[in-house]
Amino acid sequence: MIGFERFPIGFWCYYPPGFEWNEKEVLEWKECGITLTISPFFDPEKTDKAQFKKMVDFCYENGISLIINDARGNLGAYTKDPDGYREVYLSAVEEWKDHKGVVGFFIGDEPYGATIVPCAE
What is the DSSP string of 32-100? Predict the structure, then answer.
């Protein structure tokens, strides 16, 4: 079980395509009392990795833990390549697993119907 120094309070972070999160956004989260949230979407082929990592670091420095929303770990990646999903997902885990501010990975919302089996797998 993950131990938190403060009670986890968060939200789903849905930014429009092309929006670049920044320190001002993170400081507003902190002001609101946010301690744990889903990260903005990260796609290693389209996202500026250095800027994204900088923001993950900044969140951690400001007491905000993240659930990483990485394209390699979501159910969409599974449906595109069920046989290769595990390897792709593990590449995302490998990239973020040692960051002290990362507490998990977002794989999708509310599995139902045809997404239950892929979610379990």
Answer: TT--EEEEEEE-TTTS-HHHHHHHHHHHHHTT-EEEEEEGGGSHHHHHH-TTTHHHHHHHHHHHHTT-T
